[in-house]
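Hey, resending since the last one bounced:
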Amino acid sequence: MEDRVTELEIRLALQDDLLDELNKVVARQQQQLEWLAQEMRSLTERMQDGFKPAGIQHEIPPHY
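The structure tokens again:
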């Protein structure tokens, strides 16, 4: 009986560690999502303000 309790305690400790790691991953991903959303808003504003990235031409090609 004591062996079973010890085994359960070990499994619980491992699950607690895993849960902590998963929480860290989720928190890091949330930060990345927030950063990406901010970047998207910034790019959208720049595009609406008429910003044209280098190398992109909005002219009719010469063969037309």
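The mean pLDDT is 89.

Sorry for the duplicate.
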